Structures are given as C-alpha cells and as structure tokens.
Amino acid sequence: QMMSPGAAWIIRRILSGQSRPDIDPRAELVQRLQLAWKTGTSYGFRDAWAIGVGPRFLVGVWIGRPDGTPVPGQFGLASAAPLMLQVHDVLVNRDSQRGIAEPVQPVPLNVGVAAICWPLGQPMSKSDPNCRRQRLAWTLDGTTPPTLQAADQPLGLGLQERVWINAKGLRVAAGCPDAQAQDIALWPAPLEPWLPRAERREARLPPADPACLPQNLNQAPPLSIVGVREGDNLRLPASSRQALRLRLSALGGSGHRWWFIDGAPLADTDTRQDFTPTLSKPGRYQLSVLDESGQTARVEFSVVE
C-alpha cells in the first residue's frame, strides 16, 4: 500500500482543484468528486502524458513516437491533457444518458480540518503572536505538516528564534532582571524580498535594551546595496548580443550575504566581495540581499532597450 485512504483522499482533492477547505469545510466533505488529473513531459519533448481519475473511471493518455524521437513543442498540458479530458467527458456523458449515477465517496474518518497558522504551518490560536496568517487546512490523523526550511535557507537563520524580553518589551540577555523567554516565529528567509516590512526578520525581533544587551547582538550598521539604486532605468547595450553587466556589492550588515533577483537565488558573497551578474532581457527587477544577522535590503529598477 503506497498511502493510506486518507492521504489519497486529500491528494485527489488537491489534484481536482479543491485543495482549500471552504468556510464551513465539514458541510462539503461528502460530495461528488471532480476529475483529479496530472500531466507530465519527458526531457526533450519525447513523451507527453496525462492521467486523470474520476468517480468511476481512470483515464491515461500518452502521446509520443514509438522510436522515442522528440516532438518539439509537445508537452502534457497542451497535447495529452485535452485528449484525456475529452475521453473522460465521453465516458461520463454515456453513463449519464444510461441513468448511472456517479458514486459518492465519503471523507475517511482520519481526515479532518484545522486552522493552521503561517509561517510555522501548525495549529494555534489566531490571537497567538506567532500566528501571522491563519488558514484552514486538511489534517491526517490529527497531524499537520510543519513548514520546512527552504533548501537555500542561510545557515543560522531558522524559522523560530528564542529571545529574552524584559518588562519593557525589549530584547535582553538571558541573565538580565525580569527576562522572560519568548519564541518568535519567522518566515523562511527566501521570502524576505516579498514580505511586508513589518513581517521581515529585522522587524519581528524586538529592539535591544542598551542597559542589558543580548549576547551576540549584531552591532553592524544598516545593510544597503551598492551598484544600482531604487527606481533606476538601466539601458541594455546597443548590440543585442551583449547583456547588461552590473557590478554589485553591499555596505553595512554582517557576515555572509545571500543575493536574490525577483526572489530567486542569485549569488552568495562574503562581506567585502563584489560580483557582476548579467541581465539580458528588458523589464522590471527586484534585487535583494540578506546577511547573517537577518538584515535585508532591496531595490527595484528597470532595464530598457
């Protein structure tokens, strides 16, 4: 058995486009399931496939050449999926004309619904300070999967940080008077460029109390980007064969830096290291950098022809 009936029910619901529980999820759990389907394309456009499972039928379609030679531009969503959907519709319409009702699949007993909170992905009260966004989610055997660290999460920047807070709400060392431990949930570091300022790591951590500074407190100056400014309009070279080359570095901050372009990893640099990325397409870009202390900086600029 590859998976439990409950896990299969949840995945099937996701693949049928019904992944999010409704406002009153339990009222809609027992219903006629729609077609759940998935497509795929092999390397080099050699195979295009689509598989769908409905209340009564499992339909699979493969499109390709017997000798395995490529068919350029052919992929599952464009080639195999339309045919698979047509075949399923024909079968469903035939049963409907014969008066055959679609079966109803009840929800397995070990599937439930819970209010979970981001960024940790776990059930908690909406009033909890670490509940930054609350959503409804399917649960299996009363458990919910936690948010995992991204593969490119910088070392030392976890999803939860324990700090000590005094009566003034300021961050202090553990041995300071009236210090109380507090766990603060933080978003995955690669999301920093897209988060509202109040949700970023540097804003979520309380300021330090100068009368009793926390240990290992970062005293580095604010992080800033050098090489491109907010709102810049940069022009591509006259020759269409050449890309625009930027020379970038960061001032301030502390330790290693991780660079992102439109949220995608771009480069890793040391404290005083420059690097020269290239941009070949016109458009609007967002450049951001994150250092080991959790500081971030970002600029938005445009590249024009």
Automatic annotation (TrEMBL):
Entries under Pfam families matching the protein: BiPBP_C
Region forming the signal peptide: none
GO BP annotations, alphabetical order: peptidoglycan biosynthetic process
Listed InterPro entries: Beta-lactam/transpept-like (IPR012338), Glycosyltr_51/Transpeptidase (IPR050396), PBP_C (IPR009647)
Domain annotation Penicillin-binding C-terminal: ranges: 218-301
Domain of life from the UniProt record: Bacteria
A single MF term (Gene Ontology): peptidoglycan glycosyltransferase activity
Keyword Transferase annotated: yes
One Gene Ontology cellular component annotation held by this UniProt entry: outer membrane-bounded periplasmic space
Key words, A-Z: Glycosyltransferase, Transferase
This protein's name: Multimodular transpeptidase-transglycosylase
Native species: Pseudomonas amygdali pv. photiniae
